[in-house]
Amino acid sequence: MILLVLGLVLLAVIFGGRRLGAGIGGVLKVWRPTAGLASIMVLIGALALGLREDWLPAAGLAAVGAFLAISARHRKSHAPKPTPTSRMSPDEARAILGVEPDASVAAVQAAYRRLIRMAHPDQGGTRGLAAQLNLARDVLMGR
């Protein structure tokens, strides 16, 4: 009976989630609360089977409940890319990149490449700092 209810909940999440967003994105919006609720239901079912001394099904349901609880707890960062709210002045851009006011395009590109190697999110930097460097380069390059 519990598995039937869980199957219906899963179908409701999958098909109801498609209405919330585009494809799997909608499912991800409602996964955490649904997985938390499902884990509670499954763990209660495992407890009931354990009290009836049906150890093998109880262990299986406990494992499924633990998986659902962990997946409801685990959170990946799906934060949007930071976007600058205002334009940067050329003086601010030069200060960020560390170039002189009369720096050439090649000097700006060289300074940008040197800094982005350290500030890129894949290299341990932050998205915000990389966005500032990108904006500073764009301002000085006239984009």
End-to-end separation in angstroms reads: 62 Å
What percent of the residues sit in helical stretches (DSSP H or I)?
Answer: over 70%
What radius of gyration results from the CA coordinates? 26 Å
Number of helices: 6
The overall number of domains is: 2
- Could you say which overall geometry the principal axes of the C-alpha atoms support? rod-shaped
Biggest sheet architecture: none
Beta-strand segment tally? 0
**Low-confidence region ranges:** none
The helix-and-strand class reads mainly alpha
**Overall pLDDT, averaged?**
77
Question: How large is the share of residues in beta strands?
Answer: under 5%
User: What is the succession of H and E elements?
Assistant: HHHHHH
Fold and architecture overview:
This protein has 143 residues and is an all-alpha fold. The protein folds into two domains: 2-73, no CATH class; 90-141, DnaJ domain (Helix Hairpins). The protein is 73% helix and 0% strand. α2 (24-51) packs antiparallel against α3 (55-73), α4 packs across α6 and α5 (105-119) packs antiparallel against α6. The radius of gyration is 26 Å and the shape is rod-shaped.
Structure summarized in a few sentences:
With 143 residues, the chain is mostly helical.
Topology:
Blueprint: H1 2-20, H2 24-51, H3 55-73, H4 90-97, H5 105-119, H6 127-141
